[in-house]
Amino acid sequence: MIYKFSLVLVILWLLMVVASLFVGESANQVNLDALLHGPSSANLLGTDELGRPLLERVVLGAQTSLFVALSVVIFSAVIGTTIGIFSAYYGGWIDRIVTKIIDVFLAFPGLLLAIALAAVLGPGIENVVFALVVVGWVGYARLARAQTLSLRSREHILAAKALAVPNYRIFYRHLLPLIMAPLGVEATFGIAGAVIAEAGLSFLGLGVQPPDASWGNMIKEGTRYLLVAPHLVLAPGIALMLLVLAVNLLGDQFRDYLDVRGRHQNKA
Amino acid sequence: MPNFNRRQFIKSLSTATPVLRGIGAPAALSALAISGCSQVNTPNIIRMAVTGRPQMLDPRKATDALSSRVNRLLYRQLIDFDDSFSPIPDLAEWQQLSPTHYRFSTREQNRFIDGSPLTAEDIAATYLSVLNPEFGSAHRGSLKNIARIKVIDNLTVDFHLNEMDALFVGRLVIGILPKRLIEQNHPFHLEPFGSGACRCLSISEQSIVLERRIDKQQLVFIPVKDATVRVLKILKGEVDIVQNDLSPELVNYCQQQKQVKVKFSRGTNFGYIGFNFEDRLLSQLPMRQAIAHGINRQAVIDAMFKGHARLGEGLLVPEHWSGVQGLDDYEYNPSKAKALLKQVDIPAELIQKDKNNQPFIELSYKTSNDPTRIRLATIYQSQLKPLGIHLKIQSYDWGTFYNDIKKGRFQLYSLAWVGVKSPDIFQYVFASNAIPPKGANRGRYRDEVADALITRAAQSDSIAEQAELYRQLQTRLHEKLAAMPLWYEDQYAVLRKEISGYQLYADGRFDGLLQCQKKVTAQVNL
Fold it and tell me: Domain Solute-binding protein family: where (chain B) (predicted)?
């Protein structure tokens, strides 16, 4: 039941992203006659401190979060997986160096590094993506490396080597399909992490810049009016919470599905 | 009835003996319950929440507004200002014996907090220490026209000037310190010692505690950075007074709460939009006029400030002795703004096209990262957009923003002048020779007519003539839109209902603390 609810929420998120393509200038249109109005039939979620409709801005925020989440996950996964497979497959000094680099990145708090990078690079959605990719590739690299280490001595890999199959083909045809499942689970958690991280950076003023909407900067603006207009924080805050919860629950379900032992135990 | 609140209760538990910590807590809770959980206000303490800790309690070095306001309570000065910002006697009355010679006579026997008398020697020592270059006072610049200071007798001191200065008396606003402590290099910023209405009892990062000398009423300044927290604290009764520095919505919210009342008073803080006169577009008067007619200031005052501001005209408020009334208003008129924009010579490379293929020009608008300033900038942006002027808002932390403004790296910016009393501010802000770092002519405004009026006013030895010249100057600056006037924000204070007699002043000073009283009330929180 809860997984169906999670699925509905994620679908709703995607629908909001589609809807955001049809949101026009009205989302950024200042209306001095409607500052901080509460929810009403005219504005279902009320208006913000500049009289802009909150519903439309929440919808635009969904677009921002999806853009950041997908960009960060795709770039991080491609970079991290490539490095992890290369490192484990070739081994030796390459593996030792890569392992040390991964250890250094893991030793440093990820979000703190992202904040530092975003502060140096300056605010902007592209810089947020860059900063999160810099700290995000490590998880994929570690996972891909571990999986590759357990797979590189398998018979089908050795057979491919014996047949002089080029390495790139071994990676693509014989390794990658076998490590896709755990990487997929990592990616689902990565989506939730990226959404939270983008909101956090925007909350700190390092992410998406006004008048563009992001759930993080909407919460940031709303905190100033918490006493007089709590809906400014509640609307994006609840949207953020539900989305992250839903994505994490779906990730959990995906992991459980891939866990063969768990499946057999459940059946027994 | 015990005077107990939650914090004191927890503190008392933590300092109790180990046995009491173990078994005494329930007993203490019971005792508290039996006492009816009543909370009694402490009448001998009036608490004011302020935005930060006052930085400098030595009046010779204080430059920030918060420190200056607290220093007024600790130290008395030679003169003060009336409602029209004309100097009036405070510690001393004065006579102008010649254009460069002023005599100050203390009016009464004033005493420092230890009971020792305040004498002419103390006045001379205070100003001589400010004039000492090694001391490094920021106020030395405004006083360097003093040639010498001579003590005539115990109550009389003469100031001799290098050059005639009709505004000289208005510059003598430094709090007077005792000579013997100045000679001992007493750390006044840590242990204030003056002849003001209050004495300082303690200074810490958490609070500054003063005591009114007349009735031993304690006044506590508590730094609370966040505006929402300041409001929550006053609603809960942890502080009694919050003056200014709240968003208009929070002030409106406080007006609806039964525990507090809100007082308003006209203010003098002048908000404005600055132009860069070295810019190709903004150096053209029609361009500046188009912006002025394109921004609906009254709508902003009504919507954001709920009417608690008045339209600005000049840097000095109209009620100032050299202020000017009835300047032509730059009313909101989009069609006039569009017509003016057509008169602007716009280089082709500066004209861009939007997605509807409509031409527009982009102007950079710099502001601090204060959320209210960004909010205002966004409103201007939306009002100017239909005219074909796209404001590119760039918000920076205060240091970066202020540095950019001083160096002229901007097209438009917004700031406010706070606490302006003397009309010689015009020399500092609009004279051609006052471009930073020599002054505060940040817009690089160069105008021979304005320069001539500033020079003539400075050379005049008649206050009446100066007032007339400054009025002509303000009219000229207004016509040329040397800066676009926005508004004068009202002063306001949120007060607990127990506070009475608190008066607000146009310049935001805290002198209301000297008269206000707090009555005892018992709140039963059963």
Answer: 87-429
